[in-house]
Amino acid sequence: MGASDSQPVYTMIISLITVIFSCGFNDGVVALVMGTSPPAGPEKQFTALFAFGDSLTDNGNNNYFLSSLAKANYVPYGDLIGIPNLPAFANPSATGKNILRGVNYASAAAGILDETGQNLGQRFSLSQQVENFEKTLNQLRNNMNMSDEEISHYLSKALVVMTLGSNDYINNYLVPSMYPTSFMYNPKDYADLLIKRYARQILAMHGLGLRKFFFGGIGPLGCIPNQIATSLAPNGKCVSFVNDLVGMFNTRLRSLVDQLNTKHPEAIFVYGNTYGALGDILNNPTAYGFKVIDRGCCGVGRNEGQATCLPFSIPCRERNQYMFWDAFHPTQAVHQILAQRAYTGPPSDCYPINLQQMALL
Fold this sequence. Notes:
Layout: E1 7-8, H1 12-23, H2 28-34, E2 49-53, E3 77-78, E4 102-104, H3 126-143, H4 148-156, E5 159-163, H5 167-173, H6 181-184, H7 187-207, E6 212-216, H8 225-230, H9 240-263, E7 268-272, H10 274-283, E8 292-296, E9 322-324, H11 332-344, E10 350-351, H12 355-359
Helix pairs in contact: 1-11, 7-9
InterPro entries: GDSL (IPR001087), GDSL_esterase/lipase (IPR051238), SGNH_hydro_sf (IPR036514), SGNH_plant_lipase-like (IPR035669)
Transmembrane segments: 12-34
GO biological process, one term: lipid catabolic process
């Protein structure tokens, strides 16, 4: 199979990095560490980007040292060539100057709850990802030529991107044969539990000096090929009760953003309306150039959604016309739309401000 048959591991994080790099990272701190002169003129963008999340963000952490079924290190998945990327925390090369512009801690199958995704093997849960960030911070403090003041400035101007919660439903709450949570909590109480645990880790990172946070909401999980296929939704329609569950989480996450911004005025917390953006694409696919919105470009079974893309599977040819790459994940074209809307979109896309506006604070 030729290289043209593979789909890059193109996450929203890579899309965001591409947008930010097109405008320029803030190179002042990097220049200080490297012993060179900082660039002239006003500061641009962010000093670094630290990413936390699941398979929507993971760029390789599960490929190192973890016994996990949740990997995408085979054809037709592949690496993106020529696009700036963050080093995965578990990558042995994630040391020294390689981590100055940020690190990706995300882990496929991970969730807000520690037990989420255990059916797929080892992964870095959110709490473990935060612990891994602390290790990076210790490395910066101990090995880089940065004063305490420079470290504080570097962290305060860094962007934190967090995209979690999906697995807490599709690899926890919605799998009663493996997890007891749906018997223990009604949907509202479960959403409250997730937000409480999420807030705990967010505040831990705030306590370490980070000040700029972007939280991606959960998309309409009831519309992904896997849910359409396994729930036997009629005529390929979305599974409404799953979307209702997600809506409860997103409503609370947006409210959490208001609470955090009120209690911590020295920081900025932003909610990305992933659900609304994807819903707009689902309702108006042709306006975005999509023809297929209810099946994966590469997968197994009904709607190519009963299992994810297997090694050496042959994907569809017109992948840019597909909304979903496999049973669970959007295509590169969709990620680019999400990233752009997060960066320049109105408050309905990115609340209360977008990332471009955040960079100026």
